[in-house]
Amino acid sequence: MTYCVGMMLEKGLVFMSDTRTNAGLDNISTFQKMKIWEQPGQGVITLMSAGNLATTQAVVSILDERTKAHDERDPSILAVPSMFQAARLIAKTLKDVIANHAQVGQRADSAFNATLILGGQIAGGPPRLFLIYPEGNFIEAGADTPFFQIGEMMYGRPILVRAYEPGLSFEEAMRLLLVSFDSTIKANLTVGLPLDFHFYETDSLEQGKTGRISADDPYFLAISQGWGEALKSALDQQPTFEF
Amino acid sequence: MTYCVGMMLEKGLVFMSDTRTNAGLDNISTFQKMKIWEQPGQGVITLMSAGNLATTQAVVSILDERTKAHDERDPSILAVPSMFQAARLIAKTLKDVIANHAQVGQRADSAFNATLILGGQIAGGPPRLFLIYPEGNFIEAGADTPFFQIGEMMYGRPILVRAYEPGLSFEEAMRLLLVSFDSTIKANLTVGLPLDFHFYETDSLEQGKTGRISADDPYFLAISQGWGEALKSALDQQPTFEF
To answer: Which residues contact A79 (CB under 8 A, 6 or more apart)?
Structure first.
């Protein structure tokens, strides 16, 4: 499985993904699930994926080749006029890949499916964030639903629901995301470190802060250990029940 | 869906269950999912269920009738010599009910399945806690796995994992459980108030503190509101990230 979060803040767009993939419990690997396309001044697009790895890699490869090959340049992911068109192009690519895999070879129920989080900004438009379904349709984040999760989303959802605010700084968003990811990693074997992140600043039109948080990252360790203590002490602060 | 937790403490056994059942999103009802059998001085058994309501009600009714009807008294749920025998009897009843439903009428994949948490104490033995699978087998709680959850367990799991301690008082356990249930209810429509509870004290051999926590319970409201604030302040206490 997987855990990815895409978040819309006043300051910009925030993305974090884990890197664990598994085919069964005894076949575990590390793969990057976050892909960033950048053309400074023109547009920055970030894509995260959960689901069948062959499907998501095929989608990224097809989109990626289009940005490189000269004779097959249109429709290029970075040539799209708006984020909405980027979402349509990626959703169509995803749907085609799934349909293509599903028609040949052995049948497998939903096994080729994948779900994507897409976010970014194209010059002339605002930053936008989309959740793309394997059926090829998608929804957009707004004020009521300002973040999307894909994969093992349940464990890390309560803290996001409680602590998300649109005015969070990037530093605060990083802390919130690491708590959400740590809760998930502690509870589910199919989500694992390292974590990839991208913090895109609105109107910068260039790749923002990116990096990878590994299992021995001192900040992550401090959060992981500190959060358990903080939760216990938060619980202690609650009023005492009386029978 | 459902959310139930059974917990083994030094002080005794703790049970909490929600009461929402649904067949589709537009068919919601309230049903008690906790059943207590008591014979003071002899034994107390608590059963909680998640899954197909017809199945779980059939299991409880069959076991219940056996405690009342005179000519069909053996094997009675309260006549069992040990909790292990109670688990075997209930597991067999569950398996029989599922098999019975599955063989007649229309076929439905797994639709008749149910999972149970069983806990209690029979005179002469210690308190024991079991998780019973629809296949009719079961596992027992121990020092390494001192609590079981069934139903929508993911949202409320992180706080249990972090804050459970075997030495919790019943009052502390109530607080912990309400936080876990509140996180689940906030995130999932298929889990809802009121909540039923039973706190069984080791070696008392009589029904312990039981009751129902409704949506307007002042303590629950205080926890539900206070916990959001406490989480945010716990997050604020964590070290700040620096890029």
So the answer is: A73
Taking CA–CA distances from B186, the nearest residue in chain A reads A158
In which residue are the tokens 């459902």 written? B2
Closest chain B C-alpha to A190 CA, distance in angstroms: 14
Say how far apart CA A89 and CA B190 lie, in whole Å.
Answer: 35
Q: Is residue B96 predicted with pLDDT exceeding 80?
A: yes
Query: Helix and strand tally (H, E) in chain B?
Result: 5, 12
**Quick check: A105 pLDDT over 60?**
no
Contact yes or no for B187 and A161 at CB 8 A:
yes
Rounded-to-integer distance, Cα B226 and Cα B175, Å: 12
How far apart are alpha carbons A77 and A93 in whole angstroms?
11
The residue with greater pLDDT, B99 or B222, is: B222
* Global ipTM: 0.80
pLDDT in tens, B117-149: 999 999 999 999 999 999 899 999 999 999 999
Give the residue-averaged pLDDT of A33-51: 95
Ranges of each domain in chain A? 3-234
For residues A43 and A122, is the Cβ–Cβ distance under 8 A? Answer: yes
How much is the pLDDT for B140? 96
**CATH of region B3-236:** 3.60.20.10
Of B162, B163, B230, the CB nearest to A237: B230
User: Which of A162, A227, A241 is opposite residue B228, by nearest beta carbon?
Assistant: A162
A49 SS3 class: strand
Short-list A2, A3, A8, A1, CA closest to A139? A8
Q: What are phi and psi of A221, to 5 degrees?
A: -60, -40
As separate numbers, helices (DSSP H) first and strands (DSSP E) second, chain A gives 5, 12
Contact B234 A239 (CB under 8 A): no
A and B: number of Cβ contacts within 8 A? 117
Domain covering A3-234 in this structure, CATH number: 3.60.20.10
